[in-house]
């Protein structure tokens, strides 16, 4: 009779376990009948579809360009110096102003040069009178010689005197012209049209023709040149384009290559390649009507060699470089997946590059979101591209 309580407890435990098993079996049965109620396993961030922005492969024209860094160079720069010595009495220009050729810039005290001119003119007048007198005597001697009244030697001497005075008079005329020229140089004029620099000498100073700094500098601003270099491998194509007779367009941009400063044309090529740098110097001309180009300014240069009329192009930012070669990611919309594809590239310009092999027109290539892509990865195209 003593075992009956323990048996009762075991029976109760057994009944409880059977009841729990029945409950678990019922739950399993319900879940098996309704699998949608089971939450799906969570995907890792790496396995999530990658958001990307795509662009369509296009066909169109593409300019074949050479890119370089150039320096704005004036066609002419002149340091205005005095050609005579003396006191600088007046400075008539404004620093930084635009001047035309022949504009009066400054004056030097003309008094000494007026005196020299007067002296030369007086000496010439004196010799002119002596020549007139000698010519009159020669005419008289010729008449007397015909009458056999004077010796031939006297006539010959008079003729020599007349020729001597004529030569002296020519020298006097040259002296007068030189004195007049010296006097004109006291008025200092602009030898070229251009922009004035800063004044280097003030009025009241003594100036000399030997002064190296001069009074002011003038820089021609219109037209203006840009000098740049082309690598030796690109020289044959440049020479062929220049020899075609077609005017080659040149565009210059600021340092950031965001703003176009001016459009011009190729002017000339240097006659030899620099062996130290392996480049050829090239010069382009620009009208510079708006003064956007300034001497010694550094600019980015784009020289158009020719235009490819119909080529397949994509943005250059879509191109990737790997151990297999050059490739892009192509999206297949029906699969929503991106696949890498090797491509062959041609010329590039203005942020686009020609694809000679590997892509067809209207295919979609990935432009943004490339950092998380791998071959066959699921992608989500942005709404902007989808629209």
What does this structure look like?
- α2 packs antiparallel against α3.
- The protein has three domains: 85 residues, Beta Barrel (conserved putative lor/sdh protein from methanococcus maripaludis s2 fold); 98 residues, Elongation Factor Tu (Ef-tu), domain 3; 141 residues, Beta Barrel (OB fold (Dihydrolipoamide Acetyltransferase, E2P)).
- A hairpin with a 4-residue loop joins β17 and β18.
- It is of the alpha+beta class.
- The chain has a six-stranded antiparallel barrel with strand order 2-11-14-13-12-15.
- It is rod-shaped.
- The protein has five helices and 22 strands.
| Helicity level | 25-40%
H/E series:
HEEEEEEHHEEEEEHEEEEEEEEEEEH
N-C termini distance: 87 Å
Contiguous low-pLDDT stretches (5 residues minimum) are none
Rg (C-alpha, Å): 47 Å
CATH architecture of the largest domain: Beta Barrel
Residue fraction in strands: 35-45%
- Backbone structural class: alpha+beta
CATH class of the largest domain: Mainly Beta
What can be said about the biggest beta sheet? 6 strands, antiparallel, barrel
What is the CATH superfamily classification of the largest domain? Answer: RNA polymerase II/Efflux pump adaptor protein, barrel-sandwich hybrid domain
How many β-strands, per DSSP?
22
Tally the structural domains.
3
Mean pLDDT: 89
Give the neighbour order of strands across the main sheet.
Answer: 2-11-14-13-12-15
Examine the coordinates and then state which fold CATH places here, giving the name of the CATH topology of the largest domain. Answer: OB fold (Dihydrolipoamide Acetyltransferase, E2P)
Tally of helical segments? 5
Overall spatial form: rod-shaped
């Amino acid at each position: 009779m003593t075992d009956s309580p323990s048996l009762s407890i075991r029976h109760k435990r057994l009944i409880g376990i059977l009841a729990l098993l029945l409950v678990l079996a019922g739950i399993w049965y319900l879940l098996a009948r309704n699998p949608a109620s089971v939450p799906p396993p969570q995907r890792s961030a790496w396995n999530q579809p990658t958001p990307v922005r795509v662009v369509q492969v296009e066909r169109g024209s593409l300019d074949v360009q050479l890119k370089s860094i150039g320096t704005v160079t004036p066609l002419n720069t002149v340091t205005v110096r005095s050609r005579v010595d003396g006191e600088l009495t007046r400075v008539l220009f404004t620093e930084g102003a635009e001047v035309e050729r022949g504009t009066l810039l400054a004056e030097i005290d003309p008094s000494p040069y007026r005196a020299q001119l007067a002296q030369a003119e007086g000496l010439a007048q004196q010799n002119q009178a002596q020549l007139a007198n000698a010519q009159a005597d020669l005419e008289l001697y010729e008449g007397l010689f015909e009458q056999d009244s004077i010796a031939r030697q006297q006539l010959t001497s008079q003729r020599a005197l007349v020729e001597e005075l004529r030569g002296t008079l020519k020298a006097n005329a040259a002296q007068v012209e030189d004195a007049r020229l010296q006097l004109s140089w006291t008025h200092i004029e602009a030898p070229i049209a251009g922009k004035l620099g800063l004044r280097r000498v003030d009025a009241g100073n003594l100036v000399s023709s030997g002064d190296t700094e001069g009074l002011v500098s003038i820089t021609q601003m219109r037209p203006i040149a840009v000098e740049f270099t082309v690598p030796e491998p690109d020289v044959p194509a440049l020479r062929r384009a220049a020899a075609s007779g077609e005017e080659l367009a040149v565009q210059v941009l600021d340092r950031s290559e965001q703003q176009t400063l001016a459009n011009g044309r190729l002017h000339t090529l240097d006659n030899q390649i620099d062996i130290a740098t392996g480049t050829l110097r090239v010069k382009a001309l620009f009208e510079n009507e708006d003064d956007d180009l300034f001497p010694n300014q550094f600019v980015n240069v784009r020289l158009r060699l020719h235009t490819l009329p119909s080529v397949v192009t994509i943005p250059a930012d879509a191109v990737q470089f790997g151990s297999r070669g050059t490739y892009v990611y192509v999206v297949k919309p029906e699969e929503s997946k991106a696949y890498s594809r090797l491509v062959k590239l041609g010329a590039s310009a203005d942020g686009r590059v020609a694809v000679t092999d590997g892509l067809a027109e209207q295919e979609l290539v990935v432009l943004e979101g490339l950092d998380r892509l791998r071959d066959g990865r699921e992608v989500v195209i942005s709404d902007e591209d989808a629209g």
